Every structure is written in structure tokens, then in C-alpha cells.
Amino acid sequence: MSLRQMEYFLMVVQEASFTRAADALHVTQPALSHQIKALEKSVGGALLERRPRGVRLTPMGRAFLPHAELAVRSATRAHRAARAAAGAEGGELHVAALHSIAVGALPDVFARWRTTHPRVLLRLHEYATAEALEEAVERGTADLAVGPAPADPPGTVVPVGEEELVLVVPFDDRLAGRATVTLPELADRAWIRCAMEPVVHGERFLDWACGKAGFRPRTAVWTEHTSTAVRMAAAGVGVCTAPAHLVRGAVGEDCVVLTPDPPWKRPLSVYARVPPTGAAEAFVDLLRAVWPTLGASTTCPYPDAELTA
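RE: above sequence
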């Protein structure tokens, strides 16, 4: 079994056709078929079912597919990591992050990186939830992930800072002159909710927090992205909660930011399947220098709350 054979197998699966796969790989169809047959012989059974109108996976092929994908991605990562470590032209560093972190916190980090490592290309992969972020690292899509530390770490986890969740209201809101607000004061308000909202103990964070305060939030609008929810709140549609770095750093110029009393905070980490080296290690060092590092004094107002998304 060779890496090339797995690459050929993945292309056939992607194209659902030996003919199209051969064209994409710039090889002859007999050569492609020979490599696939050799691969199937090495694993002890058929991986693909040849049909008149295409190709589909056998049960053995479905079991083999995710491992082949990981092997090919790992080989690609090894190549680009080696080039990035040497600062070579064409070296790449793939960074995965939650959308809110990518929009609100990473632009300044990336700008500083470009100043010190101009020959290493950054590729940013954005995800809506922490679960999707963890899956990306597990699949080998990215070299590093930035977000809440996973419950079951895949390898190395380095604390790099913390994220504060704030409340957003328009300038003409009755609370606009305040700096802080308690959640019970918002029991009668409509809320802008977002699919990217964190999850606590299997429950959406706002439902959990408002439930602790004695009420259920009345939802006015559901959005897909946090940045959209902030814009809706700024327009007066309702109150929303969002990461402070996103509101203050990207989309919150025409709204009022209120800090919940007590404040809502969660630690952020950078994590990877293997210990970061070369460019990946330099990127972690930059994150720790730019963001406030977590210390023993950092406390969570809800010690039993694990914000997982």
C-alpha cells in the first residue's frame, strides 16, 4: 500500500468515475485501474464497486475512506510544515478557528505574522462550532486550531488567552448609559439568537444562563453568524450576546456594549495533533504574546459552565 494509491483511490471516490479521476490525475485509465487493484489486493478486498453509471464505495471502502483521507492530509501537512519551518517560499501554515475568533481576534495576529514571516502563507479555516473545529483538527485539515480547549484533547493544548461574552444594544436603548447589567433586568427583552451560540451541558448558553436567572429568553430572530446578530442588535431588533473581541474589533462601531454582572468568560487555547514546531511553534508564541495569557487569577463566574461551542 502506498500514499499514491490512496491518493488515486480518493480521486476516484471524489469523481465517482475512473475516467474522470484519470483525467484529473493526468494518468491513463489502465494505470489508474492497476493501482486501485493493487491497493485492494493489499487490504484484502474490494474497496470500490464498478457500476455501469459510475463507482461507489463498498462497505470495506467506506471503512477505509476516512483513514485514507487522514493519511493523505498528514503527508501534505508534513510537507508544508517542513517548508514553513525553513521559511521557504511556498511554505504554508493552516490555522483553524471559530468564526467569531477569526473575525474579531485574528486579523491583528495575522498582520503581525506577515511582518515577521512574509514568506510563509497562512490559510485560515473557519468553523461555526467547537465540535466542527475539533473534527477539522482530527481530520488533519489544519496544523493548529484556536478556540476553547477540547474536552478530549487530540494532542498538544496551549492556553493563550480568554474570551469574554458581552451584551449588545443600540445607542438609543434604555440601558445605553450603563456599563454593566444583570441578566434579570433583561427578562422582558427580545433576543437575537445565533447558530454559533456556545453550548453548556448540552443546552444553548443563553437558555442555560437565563434559566439560572429565572426566565426563558424570548427569541425575536435566529441568525447563522454572530456578526449578523450584532448588526441586528445595533439596529434595535433585540439584545444579543457576542464575544467582546468581535464586537469591539470588527462589527460594533455603532452599538453599545454592556458587560453582564457577573461577567461571562471562557479560556481559549491553541491545540494540535502533534507538538507545534517551526512556523507552527512561532505562531503559538505570537498568540501568547498578543493575547493576555491565562493565569491563576482568571476565574469563571459559572465554575460549572463549560462553553463548548
